[in-house]
Specification:
Length: about 80
Amino acid sequence: MQIEDIKNYKTTTALELEVKDIILDELKEENQNLAYENKRMAEFLEFIGVREGDISDRIINGDKKDWGLIFEYLIGGEAE
């Protein structure tokens, strides 16, 4: 369930409104935690030498071959 789904849900009682607010708060907290974890992972990858463009291009959107290129680069091999 997404935050927008909850925001757009029409509430009819005080209890539904309270539940809606609780769910929104939990989803917001979860999103903040994921954003923080992603930021820290990116910082770590950059620290060990993975360039910012490689994080998106080769790690997130790549396949195992791309991961292998990154691994080879990190252990001293040549990456294309």
